[in-house]
């Protein structure tokens, strides 16, 4: 797409690009990603005699700073109140309107509704409670949703955003209905869009409030000793993080961060459990847990509804920060016209110490979790022979799926990938033997609780140091014990994915590096980053190299088999990674040099 301004003045234009819905415009001169195209007209502002040239990509991710607005209800029912406020709406004559007309449409538009792609049956307001010292201005509400023959529970705090109080655009976007009370007009909306909700939760935690529920259970506001050490202003400013996600996060005046757990699950919450343990053990490089709101059923089954953490001042997550740093280094290097390797080495010299810090902090994290503990959930265990066999079987299964995906005739490969795929397929028996050989060493080693999803996106950059986020939040096997090398392998694959993203974005830009130079620079970044990360980890604790190889093999195979039709650039990088493992572990032919030569032709 090329858009030019032939005028001598600045011009704005709205383009109907709806046929390219969801594609990301990538500026071809420098590789900058613009916000994704949607169904509405696409707005551009072009300087005098200027132009934009875009590649409308299906592979490049949208900019990290872009937060897509939540999908708004198409129209609102108007509910006329008679002075009863929120309580009148959820207990009086309008309750059925909300349950039967507003909520079924509303939840299908929310990203936190896990079953939004399934037909929704009945939706009910299970209960509603006034928040501590908030009167009827905020209601903590649980809804029940019948879907697929089961009932799911979600938290949907409610409040009224009155127009005369100048509510934010987000309050309107997340509204369920329009409200009128006398001359006042407003919207029944998600209470997280209004500041009183967060303030009420903090007050409840400080006061250790316990609220009885209609079903005989109760809401418990449980603070840790750390909360008393944090000063949170009474009317602190609230900053809402990004777009809608599975959970909702608020930052309270750079003092605390509040996570509302949208889906109510009656079991131990591994993220809360991990946060409590790390805070009690004094681990310094994760946000300390300040408190939690727990719903207990009459039989004492717990469900965590909200978590309050200490705030970590930061420059963003390590994924986006790393990509920005390396993109800048590539641009400066290729424009300098000098020895590219030496110039690039100098440009990334500030990044490498941070990557080393990531390794060191992960090593310290594992050291804390490897300590003896009276809590059985965190007591280390010794891997048994049957654990080693189970691990080998898991890796063999993933490897088989990856190989099947690679040779599936429905998926084509670039010409330079075909020899690598063929070499991997021929090395299948050797890789299976390597799996058995490597897994045999797992028996007798330590199994501990791990992070579970230790990617660069789960690391915060804070003044050159690294802080780990969301430990235990991965939904798969969150309380299982495993080798610490699982987290190390995940982080290594995240570095590889960052390299693949850089190469894919760079290849769609014009006027920068040639394909050979670009691949060489990206490969240099990956090599330096992997070495720095492992070196930082080794500063704290040893690596189990055979198990690490096995788990990197598993992670690479999972990446290939997940969906080979999505993001071909990332798939190519995973294929190269699997081929490199086949060369090292199964004596497959090394075709890397031939591949590099073909890239320059």
List the helices and strands and how they pair.
Layout: E1 2-4, E2 11-15, E3 24-27, E4 42-46, E5 51-57, E6 78-80, H1 85-91, H2 95-107, E7 120-130, E8 138-147, E9 150-155, E10 158-162, H3 169-173, E11 175-181, E12 184-190, H4 195-206, E13 210-212, E14 218-223, E15 238-240, E16 248-252, E17 256-260, H5 270-281, E18 289-296, E19 302-310, H6 318-336, H7 340-347, H8 352-369, E20 381-382, H9 385-406, H10 418-426, H11 428-439, E21 446-449, E22 459-462, E23 465-468, E24 481-482, H12 485-507, H13 515-538, H14 545-562, H15 568-586, H16 592-599
Parallel strand pairs: 6-11
Antiparallel strand pairs: 1-5, 2-4, 3-5, 7-8, 8-9, 8-10, 10-12, 11-12, 13-14, 14-18, 15-16, 16-17, 17-19, 18-19, 20-21, 21-24, 22-23
Helix pairs in contact: 6-7, 6-12, 7-13, 8-13, 9-11, 9-14, 10-15, 11-14, 12-13, 12-14, 12-15, 14-15
């Amino acid at each position: 797409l090329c858009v030019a301004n032939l005028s001598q003045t600045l011009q704005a234009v709205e383009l109907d690009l709806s046929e390219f819905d969801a594609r990301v415009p990538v500026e071809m001169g420098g590789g900058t990603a613009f916000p994704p195209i949607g169904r509405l007209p696409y707005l551009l502002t072009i300087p005098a005699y200027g132009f934009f040239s875009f590649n409308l990509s299906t592979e490049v991710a949208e900019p990290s700073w872009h937060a897509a607005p939540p999908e708004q209800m198409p129209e609102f029912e108007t509910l006329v109140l008679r002075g009863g406020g929120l309580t009148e709406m959820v207990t009086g004559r309008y309750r059925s309107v909300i349950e039967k007309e507003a909520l079924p449409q509303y939840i299908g538009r929310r990203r936190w509704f896990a079953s939004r792609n399934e037909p929704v049956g009945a939706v009910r307001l299970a209960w509603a409670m006034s928040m501590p010292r908030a009167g009827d201005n905020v209601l903590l509400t649980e809804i029940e949703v019948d879907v697929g023959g089961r009932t799911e529970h979600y938290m949907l705090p409610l409040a009224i955003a009155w127009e005369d109080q100048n509510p934010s655009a987000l309050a309107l976007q997340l509204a369920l209905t329009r409200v009128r009370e006398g001359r006042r007009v407003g919207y029944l909306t998600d209470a997280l869009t209004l500041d009183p909700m967060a303030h009420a939760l903090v007050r409840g935690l400080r006061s250790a409030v316990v609220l009885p529920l209609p079903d005989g259970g109760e809401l418990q506001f449980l603070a840790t000793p750390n909360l008393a050490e944090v000063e949170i202003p009474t009317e602190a400013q609230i900053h809402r993080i990004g777009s809608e996600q599975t959970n909702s996060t608020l930052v309270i005046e750079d003092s605390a961060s509040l996570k509302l757990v949208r889906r109510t699950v009656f079991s131990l919450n591994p993220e809360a459990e991990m946060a409590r343990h790390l805070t009690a053990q004094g681990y310094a490089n994760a946000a300390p847990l300040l408190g939690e709101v727990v719903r207990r059923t009459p039989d004492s089954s717990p469900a965590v509804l909200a978590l309050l953490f200490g705030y970590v001042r930061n420059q963003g997550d390590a994924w986006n920060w790393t990509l920005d740093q390396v993109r800048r280094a590539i641009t400066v290097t290729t424009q300098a016209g000098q020895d590219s390797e030496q110039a690039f080495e100098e440009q990334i010299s500030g990044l490498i110490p941070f990557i080393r810090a990531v390794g060191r902090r992960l090593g310290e994290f594992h050291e804390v979790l490897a300590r003896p503990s009276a809590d059985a959930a965190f007591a280390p265990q010794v891997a048994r022979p049957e654990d080693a066999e189970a691990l080998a079987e898991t890796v063999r299964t993933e490897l088989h799926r990856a190989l099947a995906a690679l040779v599936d005739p429905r998926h084509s490969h670039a010409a330079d990938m075909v020899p690598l795929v063929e070499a991997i397929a021929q090395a299948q028996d050797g890789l299976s033997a390597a799996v058995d050989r490597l897994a045999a060493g797992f028996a007798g080693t330590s199994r501990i609780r791990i992070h579970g999803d230790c990617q660069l996106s789960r690391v915060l950059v804070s003044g050159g140091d690294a802080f780990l986020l969301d430990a235990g939040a991965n939904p798969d096997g969150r309380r299982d014990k495993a080798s610490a090398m699982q987290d190390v392998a995940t982080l290594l694959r995240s570095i590889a994915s960052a390299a693949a993203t850089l190469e894919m974005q760079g290849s769609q830009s014009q006027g920068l590096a040639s394909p050979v130079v670009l691949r060489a620079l990206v490969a240099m970044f990956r090599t330096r980053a992997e070495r720095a990360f492992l070196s930082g980890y080794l500063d704290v604790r040893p690596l189990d190299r055979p198990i690490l190889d096995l788990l990197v093999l598993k992670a690479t195979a999972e990446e290939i088999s997940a969906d080979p039709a999505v993001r071909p650039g990332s798939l190519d990088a995973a294929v190269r990674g699997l081929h490199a493992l086949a060369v090292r572990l199964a004596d497959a032919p090394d075709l890397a040099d031939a591949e590099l030569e073909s890239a320059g032709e």
